[in-house]
Amino acid sequence: MIKKISDKDKQDWQDFLNSTDKLENKDQKISSKPKRFIEKSIDLHGYTLEEANQKMTSYIEECFINGVNKINVITGKGLRSKNLNDPYQSSNLSILKYSVPNFIKGSDHLMNKIISIDFEAVENPSVGNF
């Protein structure tokens, strides 16, 4: 029995040949191992703004290379900061809790290595980490 190839089949075949989409490799072994969730923390208590920003840059790069999924940054609440009494400094950006996330957000290099920043935790006055 010889079947005639329909015009639709011909068109589908031609579309397939002209397509640039990649085909799924069905022979590739699918790993049954679940991905590991790696979480790390860094404590920035006692760091100056500049030191904290430098430390975060190197820490994010290190974590990115090592496949870390979540970084918990401990900055403190900034309640004992002497910068609060200085009228010439920003009350928010002179405190690590606010300045470090803004530094990261402003760096395209770092933002390409992370998924998101928990700004709700940054804005929460009772939380000293993000």
What does this structure look like?
37% of the residues lie in helices and 8% in strands. Strand 1 (39-43), helix 2 and strand 2 form a beta-alpha-beta unit. The protein has a domain at 39-123. It starts with 6 loop residues before the first helix and ends in a 7-residue tail after the last helix. It is mainly alpha-helical and 130 residues long.
Question: What would a concise description of this structure say?
Answer:
This protein is mostly helical and 130 residues long. It contains five helices and two strands; from the N terminus they run αβαβααα.
Averaging pLDDT over every residue, what do you get? Answer: 80
Percentage of residues assigned to helices: 25-40%
Radius of gyration computed on alpha carbons: 26 Å
* Shape estimate: elongated
- Count of runs of 4 or more consecutive helical residues: 5
Uncertain spans? none
- In N-to-C order, the SSE pattern is HEHEHHH
Helix/sheet category: mainly alpha
What's the end-to-end separation, in Å?
70 Å
Which strand order do you get reading across the main beta sheet?
Answer: 1-2
Number of strands: 2
Largest sheet: 2 strands, parallel
Beta-strand content estimate = 5-15%
